[in-house]
Amino acid sequence: CQNTSWDSQQHSSEYPTDAFGELEFAGFLRLSCDTPPQVIYTLMTEHWGLPSPNLVVSVVGGEGHEKIKPWVRDILRKGLVRAAQSTGAWILTGGLKEGVSRCVGEAVKDHGAAASTVSQKKVTVIGVTPWGLVHNRQQLVNAQVLNLLCFVPLQSVKCQMLLNAA
After folding, report:
1. The pLDDT of residue 138
2. How far apart are CA 107 and CA 39, in angstroms?
3. Which residue ranges does the record assign to the TRPM SLOG domain (predicted)?
């Protein structure tokens, strides 16, 4: 067994995507690195019904096993979600359960639990994760594609990514 890390060039091939749907709490889309942003935006706003963002905040860094400083975690927990809610922002993360992405996920989860009333605005968080890092990704691949490919004109999934919007 060779100990090599996943590489999109080496471990991917081009074919029409058959991974599209909705998770229990969010939509997801498997797409190519070269998918036009307008196609993704249209899917998220028209098909998923997400409101257009007034601001896009990208939270990156701190991935891996290093500890996130407590003050950074507090800012993410208290300030980021509140700022996103008040401005109508979309928050973009790496979508992983580690580092800063994990802190953002926990903050949004806490916000969702506390904001159970209809008067609270939902916070839109989008995790963009390499397909090779998605746990149990085979369960997201549809056995029968039906007409899904007709809606989303994706031609290839060479650099496969998973777009997960909550």
Report:
1. 73
2. 29
3. 26-146
Residue (of 49, 51, 29) closest to 40 by Cα position? 29
pTM flag (> 0.70): no
**Token digits of residue 43:** 């899917």
Q: Whole-angstrom distance between the N-terminal and C-terminal Cα of the chain?
A: 37
- Distant-in-sequence, close-in-space partners of 14: CB < 8 Å, separation ≥ 6: 156, 157, 158
- Do the bridges between strand 89-93 and strand 55-58 make them parallel or antiparallel, or are there none, so unpaired? parallel
Q: Which of 31-35, 60-64, 113-117, 129-133 has the highest mean pLDDT?
A: 31-35
How would you classify the pairing of strands 124-130 and 20-22? unpaired
CA–CA distance, 48 with 11 (Å, rounded to integer): 30
For 34-54, give the secondary structure using H, E and C.
CCCHHHHHHHHHHHCCCCCCC
Confidence of residue 12 (pLDDT cuts 50, 70, 90): low
Distance from C-alpha of 27 to C-alpha of 165, rounded to nearest angstrom: 6
Q: Do the Cβ atoms of 123 and 111 come closer than 8 Å?
A: yes
